[in-house]
């Protein structure tokens, strides 16, 4: 059986693989996440996911290495993680009362195969008050999350509607990933907790 190595430091990605009983180990990648100006969001998340998978695959050439990357896209702008509270406020204020898209790219790299795909989910936010935004930023939640919010935590209160896979927003489209892993023979399709 091929071992799975998750090339990620994201606690959400680890939780999602654990939640569905896919056995894995973790070796976080440390790549340059700069994206060329003008790159399409779908290409950007795929390129970064592959960059992460490739870096760690070099260390585990017999494994199946999974890399992933998530960005928020609003009015044509790609939003990564906010650098500070000022940027977090600007991001969440922009998202308030509007619809944005969350793109997650995933790369699976094995000795024989390389699969890269992305999923997109649209998220609509309620109108948010300045007070709500300020107190959300105080929780510290925005800083390790694309777009400055976490749908899986208090950011859930901002969400009016979503269209697409919820787990794409959290950072790993787990059911699509599972289907690719099954097709490659890396997971079997039976569950063992
Ligand atoms: C929009 C949104 C993003 N996120 C997270 C998912 C990702 O962890 C993060 C986007 O940053 P990424 O650069 O995709 O991932 P990361 O730096 O956390 O981890 P690594 O590169 O080591 O794999 O934002 C949420 O947890 N909830 C959300 O609702």
UniProtKB/TrEMBL annotation:
<dbReference type="GO" id="GO:0009117">
    <property type="term" value="P:nucleotide metabolic process"/>
</dbReference>
<protein>
    <recommendedName>
        <fullName>dTTP/UTP pyrophosphatase</fullName>
        <ecNumber>3.6.1.9</ecNumber>
    </recommendedName>
</protein>
<dbReference type="GO" id="GO:0036221">
    <property type="term" value="F:UTP diphosphatase activity"/>
</dbReference>
<feature type="site" description="Important for substrate specificity">
    <location>
        <position position="70"/>
    </location>
</feature>
<keyword id="KW-0378">Hydrolase</keyword>
<dbReference type="InterPro" id="IPR029001">
    <property type="entry name" value="ITPase-like_fam"/>
</dbReference>
<feature type="site" description="Important for substrate specificity">
    <location>
        <position position="152"/>
    </location>
</feature>
<dbReference type="InterPro" id="IPR003697">
    <property type="entry name" value="Maf-like"/>
</dbReference>
<dbReference type="GO" id="GO:0005737">
    <property type="term" value="C:cytoplasm"/>
</dbReference>
<comment type="function">
    <text>Nucleoside triphosphate pyrophosphatase that hydrolyzes dTTP and UTP. May have a dual role in cell division arrest and in preventing the incorporation of modified nucleotides into cellular nucleic acids.</text>
</comment>
<keyword id="KW-0963">Cytoplasm</keyword>
<feature type="site" description="Important for substrate specificity">
    <location>
        <position position="12"/>
    </location>
</feature>
<keyword id="KW-0546">Nucleotide metabolism</keyword>
<comment type="similarity">
    <text>Belongs to the Maf family. YhdE subfamily.</text>
</comment>
<feature type="active site" description="Proton acceptor">
    <location>
        <position position="69"/>
    </location>
</feature>
<dbReference type="Pfam" id="PF02545">
    <property type="entry name" value="Maf"/>
</dbReference>
<dbReference type="GO" id="GO:0036218">
    <property type="term" value="F:dTTP diphosphatase activity"/>
</dbReference>
């Amino acid at each position: 059986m091929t071992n799975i190595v998750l090339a990620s430091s994201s606690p959400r990605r680890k939780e999602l693989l654990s939640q569905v009983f896919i056995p894995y180990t973790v070796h976080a990648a440390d790549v340059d996440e700069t994206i060329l100006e003008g790159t399409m969001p779908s290409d950007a998340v795929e390129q970064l996911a592959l960059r992460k998978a490739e870096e760690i695959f070099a260390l585990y050439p017999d494994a199946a290495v999974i890399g992933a990357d998530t960005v928020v896209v609003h009015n044509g702008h790609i939003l990564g993680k906010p650098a500070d509270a000022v940027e977090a406020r600007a991001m969440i204020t922009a998202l308030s009362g509007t619809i944005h898209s969350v793109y997650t790219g995933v790369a699976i790299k094995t000795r024989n195969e390389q699969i890269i795909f992305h999923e997109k989910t649209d998220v609509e936010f309620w109108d948010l008050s300045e007070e709500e935004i300020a107190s959300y930023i105080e929780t510290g939640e925005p800083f390790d999350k694309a777009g400055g919010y976490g749908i899986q935590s208090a950011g859930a209160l901002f969400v009016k509607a979503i269209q697409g896979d919820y787990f794409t927003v959290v950072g790993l489209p787990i059911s699509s990933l599972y289907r690719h892993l099954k097709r490659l023979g890396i997971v079997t399709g039976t569950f063992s907790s």
